[in-house]
Amino acid sequence: MSDGKIVFLFDVDNTLLFHDKVSADLRRHLEHEVGPERAQRYWHMFEAIRNELGYADYLGALQRYRLEYPRDPHLLTVSYYLMRYPFANRLFPEAIDAVQHVQNFGTAAILSDGDVVFQPHKLFRSGLFEVFDGNVLIYVHKELELEDVEEKYPASHYVVVDDKLRILAAIKNSWGARVTTVFVRQGHYAHDPKATASFPPADMTIDRIGDLTNYDRAAFLNAAHSASEPAAT
Predict the structure, then answer these.
(1) DSSP β-ladder status, 157-162 and 179-184
(2) Which residue among 55, 107, 143, 229 is the one 20 to 30 A from 76 at the CA level?
(3) Residue 159 to residues 85, 107, 143, 224: CA-CA distances in angstroms?
């Protein structure tokens, strides 16, 4: 491990890419193609799979939908819609600027949950694969794969940027002062009181991904050190 090396690990959905907007667009398309009742059935399957697997699987839900409605002529149009979706238009403002900014201080990599087909496809279509120079990690439960992350991207310090306090808290619990956790208040999870009330605050909190450009290398390191120090009595 190189002394002083920093690796920045970025979540994708609602951190770099406006995933809530993607879902809203798909909802409208589904209702138009298959009608409200069958669209609602699709989302029921989608949520069931997410509860089973722990991540969003749009294509998996479409496969399950197919088993229930094997002769639906609109099925392929929904599949084409997903595969042709313009993900590059759904990147948050200054998302690429934020990644390029921290690349001045260390390696930047994607650390995401997701399936092995649609999530990589999303990264290619959005242009994020190129922005990160191919540094991409996709797991089922990324917070359980930190040993593999360290093996693939060894560093003396990590900075993890995510919209879910649950994930950040789990990573902080494992890596302690070796990691700076950055909570991005974007998307429905970040603004859901129930989703955040049970977890401690991150080392840093920003309102939008573009705010990362306001911080230098020392700021990221100092945030972790300050958070790890015991409170004054």
Answers:
(1) parallel
(2) 55
(3) 30, 10, 14, 9
How many Å apart are CA 60 and CA 98, to the nearest integer? 32
Q: Kindly report the pTM of this predicted structure.
A: 0.91
- Tell me the per-residue pLDDT of 148-172, one tens digit each, with 9 for 90 and over: 999 999 999 999 999 999 999 999 9
Collapse the DSSP code of 195 into the 3-class scheme (helix H, G, I; strand E, B; otherwise coil) and give the result.
helix
Map residue 146 onto helix, strand or coil. helix
Judge contact between 22 and 121, C-beta under 8 A: no
- Residue 112 burial class via C-beta count within 10 angstroms: exposed 0-12, middle 13-18, buried 19 and up: buried
CA dist., res. 140 & res. 27, Å (int): 24
Q: How far apart are the first and last CA of the chain?
A: 37
Q: Are strands 6-10 and 136-139 parallel, antiparallel or unpaired?
A: unpaired
Within 10 A of 144 (CB to CB), how many other CB atoms are there? 12
In the block, residue with structure tokens 């669209």: 39
- Tell me which residue has tokens 């990599």: 109
Long-range contacts of 174-177 (CB under 8 A, 24+ apart): 174/143, 174/146, 175/146, 176/228, 177/224, 177/225, 177/227, 177/228
CA dihedral defined by 23, 25, 28, 34, rounded to 10 degrees?
A: -70
- Condensed to tens digits (0 to 9), the pLDDT of residues 4-55 reads 899 999 999 999 999 999 999 999 999 999 999 999 999 999 999 988 888 8
